[in-house]
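Lab notebook, bench 4. We co-purified these components, and the gel suggests they stay together. Before we commit to crystallization screens, I want a quick structural picture of the whole thing.
Request: model the full complex, all chains together.
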Amino acid sequence: MTPSPMLEVKLPTLHELPTYVFDTLLSWNIPGLTRSLVGLYGRPDGWLGRLIGHVMSFEHGPVTRWTLEHMDIQPRDRVLDVGCGAGKALELLAHLAPRGFVVGLDHSETMVFQALSRNRARVLAGQLSVRMGDVGRMPFADASFDKVCAIETLYFWPDPRAALEEIHRVLIPGGRVALSLEYTRDASRAGDLSDTLESSAGIRIYSSAEVLELLEAAGFTALRHEAQPSRSNGWLYVEGRKPGH
Ligand SMILES: C[S@@+](CC[C@H](N)C(=O)[O-])C[C@H]1O[C@@H](n2cnc3c(N)ncnc32)[C@H](O)[C@@H]1O
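Here is the predicted assembly.
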C-alpha cells in the first residue's frame, strides 16, 4: 500500500517547535507581523524580548552545541560571543574554558541583563563578563581574544564586512572566528522564507559562498565550512583564521 502523504510529514522536535511556529507565522506573509517578530530576535526588548530570550536559549541549543563542537575551545582560551543573546553559549563556553575568560557582547540591554543573570556565579568569580555594544564598534582592545563566535546573529548586522573587520581587530594573530546560522540560502526549502525575511523584515539570508566571501574580504584565511542543508532551515558553520603566528 502506498503511504498517504500525510504520514510523511516530518514532525518538529521539541527544540524545533519554536522555529516551526515562527516559520508558520512568517509563511502568512503579513509584513507588519514579520517585521515585529524578526525585530524581536534582532534586538529583544521589554517583556516579549525577555520571553524570546528564554525561547532562544532553548531553541538555539542544538545549533549552539554544534558550533562549539567545531571551535576546539581550549581550557585557557579567551573567547568572545558576539550577539550573545540570553547567554546560553557563554554558559557552555565557560565550562569549556575554565581557566580562560569568556565575554559576551550584545546591543540589547534586555539580553545583556539576561546573560548576566544566567551566568551570575561565573561573573562573580571573575571568569565571565557581558558588555553592551554594537559589533561594528566593540569596546575591546586589539588582540584581546583567541576565539570569537557569533551564533544566529549575522543576518541582523547592517554592515557585515565592517563587523568582521572589527572581529579581526580584536582577535590575536592566529585567532579564529566562527559564524553559524540556522537560516541559509543553501537549504532547499528555505527559498520562499528567505525572500519573505529579506523583503519584509530587511534582514539578510546568506548562502555559504557569500559568508566565505565576506570572511575573505575582512582578511581571514584558512576558511572552512560545514553545511547541513536538511537541518532546520539550513545549518551553516563557517570558520576563518586571522593570519599570523
Ligand atoms: C537571534 S539572536 C541570537 C542570540 C544567541 N546568539 C543565540 O543563538 O541564542 C541575535 C542576537 O544578536 C544581537 N545583535 C543583533 N545585531 C547586533 C549588533 N549589531 N551588535 C550586537 N548585537 C547584535 C541581538 O540583540 C540578539 O540578541
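The domain at 9-241 is CATH 3.40.50.150 (Rossmann fold). Worth comparing against the SEC data before the next meeting. Residues 41-44, 56, 60, 64, 83-85, 88, 105-108, 111, 134-135, 151-153, 156-157 surround S-adenosylmethionine (CB under 6 Å).
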